[in-house]
Amino acid sequence: MVTELNIEHLGLLTALERQALSGASDSQMLEALGNDDACVLGWWQKGELQGYAIVTRLPFEAELQAIGVLPECRRSGAGLALMEAVLAKAKCWSSERLLLEVRVGNLSAIRLYKRSGFGEDGVRKGYYPPLPSQAAAGREDALLMSQVL
Known about the structure:
Elements: E1 2-4, H1 10-20, H2 26-33, E2 38-45, E3 48-57, E4 61-69, H3 78-92, E5 97-103, H4 107-115, E6 119-128, E7 140-148
Parallel strand pairs: 4-5
Antiparallel strand pairs: 1-2, 2-3, 3-4, 5-7, 6-7
């Protein structure tokens, strides 16, 4: 089940992110929880928060800023459920498009986004710092994707 999270969920959200490693900072999550132009959605199973997504409202568009699911819950439908909720929220805001960027090496996320109807718009070269496990590899490109709503 997907619900909107509030400031009372901050501890659960930061604990989840420490395992999900989506790249969202504690300050980014805190700011999103207290912002009228942002929505933090949580995916719950058996009373436990197992995934989340942060979407923000822009003047004409919305942007998916982060999506994270516990490693042991991946491939369970959580990502798809969160994407459906993000798309519904963006449509509720009357956004014209939903934007996102993703590491070019994050193939499972790219598959999810394509399955959810996103198309590729371009590449931002050297956008992401290297992951700790790939520090010698250098910066990674960002794939820019969007979906017209």
